[in-house]
Specification:
The protein is of the alpha/beta class. The chain has a domain of 201 residues: P-loop containing nucleotide triphosphate hydrolases (Rossmann fold, 3-Layer(aba) Sandwich). The chain has eleven helices and ten strands. The chain has a six-stranded mixed sheet, sandwiched between helices. A four-stranded antiparallel sheet has the order 2-1-4-5, with helices on one face. Helix 5 crosses helix 7.
Amino acid sequence: MSLTRPGGSRARFGDSLRGETRTAPGSWPAPDAAPPLGAERVGGDSWSAAADYGRGLEMPRLLAENVSCWFGARKVVERVNLSMEEGRVMALIGPSGCGKSTFLRTLNRLHELTPGATSSGRVLLDGVDVYGDVPITKVRLSIGMVFQRPNPFVHMTIAQNVLSGLRLAALKVPDKDRLVQTCLERAGLWRETRNRLNAPGGSLSGGQQQRLCIARALAVSPRVLLMDEPCSALDPTSTRVIEETIRELCADVTIVIVTHNMQQAQRVADDTALFLIDGEGEPGRIVEHGPTDQVFSSPRDPRAADYVAGRFG
């Protein structure tokens, strides 16, 4: 269903930006120290996948290049390079504290909301750097987020919850009722709520609330949907429904999911990236990534083999 802003149509994320001239952003000048708040990016990546895609390879939906993250002076993520392809599910796995959720929040610029949090590198959506000259609201419309714990607007009705993002973004649709139904169907919640759309969102069960949050995210037609352990607070039945929803959605939306459940990663993900730390106080980094079957059955890195075999973590 087409969404429009007053007076115009909603274009592909980068369409309005591709004709602009601006300095190609790159890494921060000092890769091993937190960049100053408000510092400008400079050219000079030590490695640039985007250059390879520019030579004829198809650009992935979402591409992280040399992404590092800090909280104050403490570096928590070290130079992550990862492509997240259109129509696929990418799982981020690894033990607690290795930077998975921080990296995820960097992808749609939520990391910077934490006081003292900084990052470096590039995040390209359809070839456009989301940390460049792009309104942050547009970034978060295009890259949605579903959090660990359901966070519906408990005093809004179910239908109002689905439509809430449209109001905040000043988007209009010709048929709101149809959009509510479509989003609830895609989130696997329509049959359970079709006769109670005016009930408060807070009246739903935990699993239903999480699917309501998915429906709310889908209402603004994101190109990417980030999920930070979306099933960690749910029972097995609700978890199964969410996993089925993820598999159905990935045909239209690229999904990146953080999970501590390795069985879940194997069930839902086409590709998997394993984050580990080398020691106490060290930043997290990707030590293995690729097709999920390969990561779990024949990992190249011995640390990955030990982790997926359950010998640590």
